[in-house]
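Take a look at this chain, tokens included, and explain the fold to me:
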Amino acid sequence: MSSLDLNADLGEGMGADAALLEIVTSASIACGGHVGDEATMRAAIRAAKARGATMGAHPGFADREHFGRRRLLLTPEELDDQVRGQVRHLVEIAEEEGASVRYLKLHGALANMAAEEPAVAALCFASVEGLVKDLAILALDNSAQADVAEAMGFDVVREAYADRAYQANGLLVPRSEPGAVLHDKDAIAARAIRLVESGEIVAIDGTIFRSSARSLCIHGDTPDAIEIARHLRRSLSDARVSIASAF
């Protein structure tokens, strides 16, 4: 892998969007489920467009109290309504702003459930079929999300996380467990370089697993997100890794 896409979740009210957009190449924009409204979506779209970042929809459970990080059991109709409604709203605003939504990335608990359960992934992805021509799926590598999206015929960009710990099976360590969120910027940079050079990620228990991820996520709601992102980008540049959108 000679290049890597850097993505961040934006429009979540953390105040870091402008700084992150100077660093990342793709912006996953919250679209009114776990957080966000028309004003925040429009502002994020304008900012991403001005900086040439690829834009994606970032829908999650409509559970603002828990920031979309609580697992909910919805009927298929309810899940379809939430995901499709959020993405459609973002797409409509983007069209008004002369921009385009290129990909879908699920948020929080919904993303974790879809990574584990093929039926949930299939419901989420079916809900956006036909909304946008050639919509891609940004999906956690080594997960049901990636496998299901490919089987459904979507263009899939496989993703890894710069600032989250992994289980040995390639899925993320739950946020409720110690060490789930990483803060050591040198360790985060080293992980990214190892991913690029060797296609490997080290799990929290020391297990090494393979990854073909082409996009690396930096969470914008981490308190030290900007410092981490800047250090990561500099380290990748020093390692002669080119940073470019994967979409």
Remarks:
- The chain has one domain: 3-243.
- The domain at 3-243 is CATH 3.20.20.370 (TIM Barrel).
- The beta strands are 3-10, 26-30, 54-58, 101-104, 136-140, 156-161, 200-202, 208-210, 215-218, 242-243.
- Residues 15 and 117 are 33 Å apart (CA to CA).
